[in-house]
Amino acid sequence: MSETPSTVAELVRDAIVDSFTRLVVNAAVIAITDDPEAVHQARVATRRMRSDLRTFGDWLDEERATELRGELRWLGGELGAVRDLDVLRDRLRGHAAALPAPDAEVAEPVIRRLDADRSAALRELVTGLGDARYDVLVQDLESAARQPPCTSAAYDAPATSVAPAVQHRWRKLRHAVDQLGDRPADEALHHVRIRAKRCRYAAEACIPAVGKPAKRFAKAVEEVQEVLGEQHDAVVASAWLAKTALECSPAEAYAVGMLAEVERAASESARAAFPPAWKEARRPRLRKWL
């Protein structure tokens, strides 16, 4: 890999190689172990590749890039089905541990209901990783890592010329935030979170060419993403608890109610942390390189 890519083509190649390596290494671990971190890392790899293929879209063969994104979306969905359950289960267990001992003891069997769902999702994921569809995707990604699906312009354009692509992502994020009211709906905040993640990934893809300015900007946007990620996770957990409470005994329902209150407080705390995080991310000095 190039330490400092000089062209867009080199930047694309290095980005694909990094994520492709991350994917295949962790997919191999998933196939033989029950490792939540491997699922997480493989999912991040698929998300980053999809994002990079969009960020560098002006310099890529549209048909090949679209095809790769579609297959990565499929794989990301398989990984996400397991990862989302891992996040929910770990979150609830952590919060349950902070309850009074009797309530924590009652809550644990309720949370264990997620284990069966997780096991089923993992079986489907492992089956998918053993399918010919995954093998073809790996072959296509390996080919893209060796020879990126770039147009001829990518070999002439300096690597720093991708900055406007980040500006485009930033404008979409800023527009989404501008549409928020005084008390935005959970769905609206989740939309902003998605925009922030895409903007962050785009900026991080430029770090090898741009350096610290892109890194500082990405870090500030990441904070927005993290705050809204916490808010979204609390909303998801609250919805699961509300659904599960209908199937619980009175003692279990009481413990579930305590957990629901913890999640409500977590959601409100994240909402309160969003404005200062956004204020920092939108400082003009962070975007001088764009």
Give the topology, please:
Layout: H1 8-32, H2 36-55, H3 62-97, H4 101-111, H5 113-129, H6 132-146, H7 163-178, H8 186-210, H9 212-245, H10 250-281
Helix pairs in contact: 1-2, 1-6, 2-3, 2-8, 3-4, 3-5, 3-6, 4-10, 7-8, 8-9, 9-10
Explained architecture:
The chain has 290 residues and is mainly α. It has two domains: 1-157, CHAD domain (Alpha solenoid); 160-290, CHAD domain (Alpha solenoid), CATH 1.40.20. It contains ten helices and no strands. The chain has helices at residues 8-32, 36-55, 62-97, 101-111, 113-129, 132-146, 163-178, 186-210, 212-245, 250-281. α1 (8-32) runs antiparallel to α6 (132-146), α3 runs antiparallel to α5 (113-129) and α4 crosses α10 (250-281). The protein starts with 7 loop residues before the first helix and ends in a 9-residue tail after the last helix.
What descriptors fit this protein?
single chain, 290 residues, 2 domains, 10 helices, 80% helix
Briefly summarize what is shown:
By secondary structure, the chain is mainly alpha-helical.
Q: Label the CATH architecture of the largest domain.
A: Alpha solenoid
Tell me the series of helices and strands, N- to C-terminal.
HHHHHHHHHH
Which residues form runs of ≥5 with pLDDT under 50? Answer: none
Secondary structure tally: strands: 0
